[in-house]
Amino acid sequence: xxxxxILRAKEPNRLDGWMNEAHRSGLYGLRxxxxxxxxxxxxxxxxxxxxxxxxxxxxxxxRLKTLGHRLIMTQPDAD
Length: 79
Known about the structure:
By secondary structure, this protein is mostly helical. It has one domain. Helix content is 73%, strand content 0%. It has five helices and no strands. It has helices at 3-9, 15-24, 28-39, 41-49, 55-74. α2 (15-24) packs antiparallel against α3 (28-39). It comes from Acidisoma cellulosilyticum. This is Transposase. It holds the Pfam family DDE_Tnp_ISL3. Residues 11-67 form the Transposase IS204/IS1001/IS1096/IS1165 DDE domain.
């Protein structure tokens, strides 16, 4: 069972089985990833289930921060 398949199919109910397999895999990185997901499993399930994301909002915030930094850097020093 692939994690990508769970995301694409939007089937959060398959997540538990995948996480159990990841824990039994013996691969440190995969086990660590599964443990990290477990820390906020409700948010992970919602992210799989919902089509909405805050990606656009985060992108706009980063763009505004970058613009703000540029404006601050181009201002002449006040003497």
